[in-house]
Design brief:
mainly alpha; 4 helices
């Protein structure tokens, strides 16, 4: 079976702006993924290897332990990382996509 490739797909794939878009998007995606993995695996590592640290109260006579604000910070970090990607996607990546679509048509 011989599948024919749409010429527009070939033009898009060879477009310099598309190549730049792919490189930029992939680089950002991998960078944010590594940051996320470091954060989550670091927290899991703390749970596995230093439970006593996470179980210490924040201050004398307090019930809240150190682990609670670290976990909340990790959740906020996740939201921030997502916001960074969305902001860059809406500004830079969408602009490049529109430029590519206009050039190919």
């Amino acid at each position: 079976m011989n599948a024919s490739v749409d010429p527009r797909v070939e033009r898009i794939a060879s477009h310099p702006a598309y190549q730049r878009l792919r490189r930029s998007r992939n680089r950002l995606g991998w960078f944010l993924t590594v940051l996320m993995l470091l954060g989550y695996y670091g927290y899991i590592g703390l749970i596995a290897f230093d439970k006593a640290f996470l179980a210490k109260p924040i201050a004398e006579g307090r019930i809240t332990t150190v682990g609670i604000p670290i976990a909340l910070g990790l959740m906020v970090f996740t939201i921030v990382i997502t916001g960074i990607y969305v902001r860059r996607a809406n500004k830079e990546f969408d602009q490049l996509t529109h430029q590519i679509v206009e050039d190919v048509q």
